[in-house]
Write a structure and sequence with these properties.
Helix content is 52%, strand content 16%. The chain contains 28 helices and 24 strands. Strand 23, helix 21 (563-568) and strand 24 form a beta-alpha-beta unit. Helix 7 (208-238) packs antiparallel against helix 8 and helix 23 (626-645) packs antiparallel against helix 26. The protein is elongated, with a radius of gyration of 34 Å. The relative contact order is 0.10.
Length: 797
């Protein structure tokens, strides 16, 4: 069919033609990036090495019939529940935003007009779109002249005029006017869908905490198999123990090597952070991104919708010679009020300007709506004045456009200038009649978010470098960035000149503002920053931002933007307020700094149990059973970790997570191993039974653990002092009142002597090593290189 549909009375497709296209798969389905399904979320959290190892250990304990020794599975279940619940909650909220922002589209078919979901459109359908509608599929205009907003696709905020024969791209909006268009490309063939398809890959999470946990679990799994098997064979074959006893002691050793509580603590702390942010209208789709954003050193900002509100504002109004600015403003208010029902972005900006200044429009007899073909709008007032507003060349004529230029010399070069005039009248087809008398000019510009300057200052104070990447004109972007407080905003580049990888790479080092950037170039700019070792956050709201959002370490989308941008981002600002970003950073700092402090408690157990297991293969018995490790894990590790991890903490994040943790945990682990080795040697010489040895070792571990808690709780606050008192009380009750449950035997005189001597020596050794470790290990390059290799982060993948 040709574009001249008027001869056929805009005849749409018949039901048979629609059915034929549906059968061929030429529908508009599957055009967007989707959030993860519930099944995917559950599978990601359930099918992990951590869960697999713990499940295998639980099965072994189940075979012994000692069910109370399976308490460690509660930690596994709680961790799984927290992770799945948090992510599903965020998914449903983001999906709800997509549903709320999706509108049905009017379709003309042979059987009549109807409204359909965008997914039910087929190729060659005729769509009827009006002001405010989003184009659901690529199409060609058949009838009507419109002004299109393509900012979500290109980043260019300036409206684009289009008429019959012009192409419409999916994802753009009708800014003014109405049209009928024939669908040309559907589904995966559409412009927006092609960009979205490039973003449909699994994005790796760049998180030091997650890398640390995985490294510990991976390393622990490699170590626990030979150590666990060695302990089992030693206990069962060489020491003559029963099968059940051999299994329980082996499982106790292996459980200690796996930081179950640390995994649960991390999930809990991040879940609490996402809950707190959720109350501030910040939706977190990937919990670990809270940490990543706190570590970001480069923030890439999209202009439209991030720095700016996405709306326009009146910058200034000037009058022609002999005309006062208030008279021009009154004429503006009258024209836009007369056409308020079809107000575009420019008209809405003038309406707000008039409202803020309490300008009363004159009463009108006739309205002349804006047309992208005419490039002006107007009205006829009750007293017969014909007022007109629009582009100078169309209102005044090309030969008189210089009159407007003379008035606009005080305006910024990036501002859009419209003229206001008075003519004799308008013809029946709304053409200007008679010569136009110039009344004045109005300058329109992008509206900066009121909080943009404060937010920029926050990131600059934190040492974060700001880059602005936009599809708009680089001069416009530079001027807006400067107004928002972005340093070095005058160092801009037009990305159309970056036609080779070498030029783009060089521009990353020089420029701070990038204009006319394609979606693919945005992604390449993020990759170039990654090659420079930067941790990059990206903000955006449009289809043109999707690829860069997917590539960034942490991506932030506006709820008002495209569904694809929301669905690929880790963080969604539900109220479109960029000023929430400092709050996200603050939550990340609290989480990381507190987790670093608490994680040292968990790694103490991981390290000392692995070292002890190795010793006990040569010199048995292994001095713990699972229920005793549960007491220590709860009192000395679990409770203090959760309390300390939830305290306020807004300090800057410093150093490597694992290095900071090991610097605090290794001294305690070494002191504990020395104390336990002393009891194994002395206890054997004194004829202590297994129950007596395990009881003494439990107390010795508690002593060093409490000393570590004292150290990491400095400076001591009332809450931390109360915490220490509670921990001591729990250990005391566990070793006395609840001793039978934890299989702690009554203490004899020889046991007391060993506890006193070994305990004092171990605490003294710990304090000495702790001071040395903090002053040396955290900054030792060789140590840090080993840590990076353990984490697998010495190279960016």
């Amino acid at each position: 069919m040709t574009l001249d549909e008027k001869n056929d009375g805009l005849r749409g497709l018949t039901d048979a033609e629609v059915a034929e296209r549906v059968a061929e798969g030429r529908t508009n389905a599957n055009t967007d990036v989707r959030t993860k399904t519930v099944r995917q979320i559950v599978a990601e959290h359930a099918l992990t090495l951590f869960n697999g190892v713990n499940l295998a250990l639980a099965v072994l304990v189940l075979l012994t019939g000692q069910y109370r020794n399976m308490l460690f599975m509660c930690v596994v279940a709680a961790n799984l529940l927290i992770g799945v619940t948090q992510e599903i909650r965020a998914k449903r909220m983001v999906d709800k935003l997509t549903i709320l922002t999706q509108k049905e589209v009017g379709v003309i078919r042979a059987s009549g007009e109807r409204t359909l979901p965008p997914s039910e459109l087929v190729a060659d359908d005729l769509m009827r779109l009006a002001h405010g509608d989003q184009v659901p599929a690529d199409a060609v205009i058949v009838e009507g002249f419109v002004s299109m907003n393509e900012s979500l696709l290109t980043g260019e905020a300036k409206p684009v005029s289009k008429g019959p024969g012009d192409e419409l791209l999916s994802g753009s909006f009708v800014d003014a006017g109405s049209l009928v268009a024939r669908v040309t490309r559907v589904g995966a063939e559409g412009y927006a869908a092609r960009i979205n398809a490039e973003a449909k890959y699994v994005k790796a999470v760049h998180s030091e905490i997650q890398a640390t946990l995985r490294a510990i679990i991976r390393l622990g799994t490699v170590v626990l198999v030979p150590l666990g098997l060695g302990l089992f064979l030693r206990s069962y074959l060489m020491d003559g123990g029963s099968l059940n006893d051999a299994i329980l002691t082996s499982v106790a050793a292996v459980i200690g090597m796996i930081p179950q509580g640390l995994v649960l603590l991390t999930s809990s702390v991040l879940a609490i952070a996402t809950f707190r942010l959720g109350r501030r209208m910040v939706l977190v789709q990937q919990a670990y991104c809270v940490e990543t954003l706190a570590r970001v050193d480069t923030l890439c900002l999209d202009k439209t919708g991030t720095i700016t509100t996405g709306e326009m504002e009146v910058a200034s109004v000037v009058g022609a010679p002999g005309v006062e600015a208030p008279e021009v403003a009154s004429a503006l208010a009258t024209i836009v009020a007369a056409n308020e029902a079809d107000a575009n972005e420019t008209a809405r900006a003038i309406l707000r300007y008039a409202s803020e200044r309490s300008l009363e429009p004159m009463r009108c007899l006739r309205a002349v709506p804006f047309s992208s073909a005419r490039k002006y709008s107007g009205c006829v007032t009750e007293d017969g004045r014909a007022l007109v507003m629009g582009a100078a060349a169309f209102v005044l004529g090309a030969e008189r456009a210089g009159e407007a230029d003379a008035l606009a010399t005080a305006f910024d070069a990036t501002e859009r200038v419209l003229v206001v005039g008075e003519c004799a009248s308008f013809s029946a087809d709304e053409t200007i009649e008679g010569e136009v008398a110039l009344l004045g000019c109005v300058a329109i510009r992008d509206e900066i978010r009121p909080t943009a300057g404060e937010t920029m200052r926050f990131f600059l104070e934190q040492g974060v470098e700001l880059r602005v990447i936009s599809g708009d004109d680089p001069r416009t972007v530079s001027a807006i960035a400067a107004r928002a407080g972005v340093p070095l905003a005058e160092r801009y580049v037009d990305a159309t000149t970056l036609d080779t990888p070498e030029r783009l790479d060089a521009a990353v080092d020089e420029a701070r503002v990038f204009g006319r950037v394609t979606p693919q170039q945005k992604r390449e700019l993020v990759r170039a920053l990654h090659r420079r070792g930067r941790t990059v956050a990206m903000t955006g709201d449009g289809v043109n931002d999707v690829l860069a959002l997917r590539e960034a370490d942490c991506s932030v989308a506006m709820a008002s933007g495209s569904a694809a941008a929301r669905n690929v981002s880790e963080i969604v600002l539900a109220d479109n307020d960029f000023s929430h970003m400092p709050e996200v950073v603050a939550e990340g700092r609290r989480s990381i700094n507190n987790l670093q402090r608490s994680a040292s408690l968990f790694l103490v157990k991981t390290v000392f149990t692995a070292m002890l297991a190795l010793v006990c293969i040569v010199m048995p018995p292994y001095p713990f059973i699972p229920i005793q490790m549960s007491l220590l894990s709860t009192a000395v590790i679990g409770i203090p970790s959760f309390v300390l991890a939830l305290e306020p903490n807004h300090e800057l994040v410093r150093g490597n997570f694992l290095a900071n943790v090991l610097a605090r945990s290794l001294p305690a682990s070494a002191a504990i191993v020395c104390a336990l080795l002393a009891e194994l040697l002395v206890g054997r010489a004194l004829g202590h039974s297994f129950g007596e040895i395990s009881s003494v070792c439990t107390v010795l571990v508690a002593c060093v653990g409490i000393a570590l808690i004292w150290r990491i709780s400095q400076p001591l606050t009332p809450l931390r002092a109360a915490l220490l008192a509670v921990i001591v009380a729990i250990v005391a009750l566990g070793c006395t009142v609840a001793a039978p449950f934890f299989e702690i035997v009554s203490f004899t005189g020889s046991m007391g002597v060993v506890i006193a001597a070994a305990g004092v020596a171990a605490v003294a050794l710990f304090n000495y090593m702790y001071r040395r470790s903090l002053s040396g290990l955290e900054s030792d390059e060789r140590f840090l290189e080993i840590v990076r290799k353990v984490e697998g982060t010495h190279e960016r993948t």
